[in-house]
Amino acid sequence: MGQSAFIKLVPESTVQQITLKDLKDKIHHYIDMTSKTGKQLSWGYADMAFPYTIVEKTESEGTWFYLKGNDPKLYKYIIFGVGAQELEEAGEKKQQHFIQVVLPEDGTHGDKGKANEFCKYLAKEYKGELHLFNGRVMYYYPRK
């Protein structure tokens, strides 16, 4: 498998758990925002800002979907999934939900750039903790 980035939903996040439908809704909101920007600029910005088609396989069982690039030379695939992991804090077990973004091994530089952009957008929207592909962490929630 390729590289993975994670958006972890922390107690300070806007939501504590996420479904695939919620994630798709955020992606559609992103597409809508960029198309409105394009209309203001009188330019087809939406096609450049989101050069993908959303594809969901029947075997994904509501846990993942992928974005298929419209121009295979520049963009191939980005995979999005949702899940949860068990954490133990102060002797108490809790579930921490997350969004996983995967770049397949044959992904392009364009895919990585767009994946980073989508990750930052989603982390900002959900006020989550973003673990980037390179291992660095960005905090989009108020820290004490």
Automatic annotation (TrEMBL):
InterPro entries xrefs: DUF1885, Rbstp2229-like_sf
SUPFAM superfamilies in UniProt: Rbstp2229 protein (SSF111171)
Name its species.
Ammoniphilus resinae
What the entry lists under Gene3D superfamilies is as follows: Rbstp2229 like protein, Rbstp2229 protein
| Top-rank lineage group of the source organism | Bacteria
User: What is the protein's given name?
Assistant: DUF1885 family protein
